[in-house]
Amino acid sequence: MIGYPILNMDYFFTDIHKYLRLLEEVIIHFMWKNFKIKGERKKGKTGVWFNVKNGKSRKICAIGIRMSRWVTMHGFALNVNTDLQYFNHIIPCGIYNQEVTSLKKEDISFQEVKRMVKKSFQEIFDVEFI
Q1: For residue 23, what are the contacts with CB-CB under 8 A and spacing of at least 6?
Q2: 89-118 pLDDT tens trace
Q3: Active-site residue 61, yes or no?
Q4: What is the pLDDT at residue 121?
Q5: Which CATH superfamily is domain 2-123 in?
């Protein structure tokens, strides 16, 4: 699932790192609230991960943004039902020796995930989509 928020950060805050951390928080919040799955941050890396503390971390959500005049572009890619074998042919996010994972084990529709992530985004950013 690709999330591509376009926000004028002048209406929120003008801090790129804070924006990145809040995008991570949207996914962490979504996973915990709906599935009791603990998403984590990994020191020095952007995105959302599993099993950071036990040394077998796997990335479930990649985040990459751009801002121009404090208007956001790009966003996140959450692996919902992704065929993970495709990742065997690339180095995701330029990070070697790190696995990726997905929510595929959860029996849930893509539309339901979309609705849940949208709700988490609204809660974390304190906005209402129109």
Answers
A1: 3, 5, 63, 65, 75, 76
A2: 677 677 777 778 788 766 678 899 999 999
A3: no
A4: 97
A5: Bira Bifunctional Protein; Domain 2 (3.30.930.10)
